[in-house]
TrEMBL record:
Protein's name according to its UniProt entry: Ammonium transporter
Similarity comment text for this entry: Belongs to the ammonia transporter channel (TC 1.A.11.2) family.
Organism of this sequence: Halomonas rhizosphaerae
TM annotation in the entry: 14-38, 50-69, 110-128, 135-155, 175-192, 204-229, 249-268, 275-293, 299-321, 333-350, 356-381
Main location: membrane
Occurrences of domain Ammonium transporter AmtB-like (ranges): 16-408
Keywords annotated in UniProt: Ammonia transport, Membrane, Transmembrane, Transmembrane helix, Transport
Keyword Flavoprotein found: no
Amino acid sequence: MVELPELSYALDTFYFLICGVLVMWMAAGFSMLEAGLVRSKNTAEILTKNIALFAIACTMYLLVGYYLMYSSGAGGFLPSLGVLIGSENGVDAVLAGGDDAPYYSMRSDFFFQVVFVATAMSIVSGAVAERMKLWSFLAFAVVMTGFIYPVSGYWTWGGGWLAEVGYSDYAGSGIVHLAGAAAALAGVLVLGPRKGKYGKDGSIYAIPGANLPLATLGTFILWMGWFGFNGGSELKMSDVGSANNVAQVFVNTNAAAAGGVIAALVLAKLWFRKADLTMALNGAIAGLVAITADPLSPSALGAVLIGAVGGLLVVTSIVVLDKLKLDDPVGAISAHGVVGIWGVLAVPFTNAEAGFGPQIIGILGIFVWVFVASLVVWLILKAVMGIRVTEEEEYEGVDLAECGLEAYPEFSASKK
């Protein structure tokens, strides 16, 4: 059999890059989803957050994050310190053959990983929407994407101590989504709820988003981007086994999202007597988050069921967090955190190589690290520069207070 190392190298590199582009497109999905679920007076600011956090994530991961995550010894707890992403392995290394020869460009690996860290940070932006100072948020993004996420990423995908104990997380239900939700939860606790969200008597007042068509578009963009998120995590495409695995991952990813939508919509109808669109949208995201920990091992029907449980959990969690007065305008903590935990715990049901013990250790390790580290950073930012806009600015809208413009100026009451 004739081997074609250069052709395989080119194919796997190209596949990695295309999947990275799909994951990058999820940034548009988060932007549209969040812009649709906040009030019109806060739209420009949430969009500014999303494009700025993406740029910050890409830069910080280039400067230090990638080195921290992938340049440290196996089984360790503290990553090695360093900067930049190292030298490129060229074709000569591929043609040399052997087990250590790379089968894709190291630059393509960086590109694929950098859009993942941006996804984790995007989860935070929706949870703290409508009342946080823009520059405080961006300062947190620097620390989160450059240091907090890469450390727990090293523990897992970088070959650190969680990898050694057997923690299994194919595409990041815990590594990416739970981490983002843990950082968001810490921020929400320090920040407090939006004005008018909760009454003194314990009553809860809905604050509807301004543009549900936009939120729906954002959800479909995320659904599409998730094929790169999960499919690219196979890390290879150039042989029959890998190609079949990628096909299975795509089918299961789609099936889980569908299961999440159906389950969330049915539960909303039974619970609220209405088909709540926002719950259906969160159901789709919940299904996707749930299957991300292992989109390869389950059958297609099993993926539907895993996604459906995620859909039920996200509706329940959103209601419970509201009762606890944890104000999350887009349901990010529920969809990515609570359902991320379910996704990690679901792995041993279909993957015989995974165990509940390592999965629980992984959940606790990731959550405790990201939550505590994020809480410290949020509290420092609160003391040094403040993290919440004034009550007047919140009432007028953070578009004008933080950005000096409005997303929908023709609809402003002040305009004639």
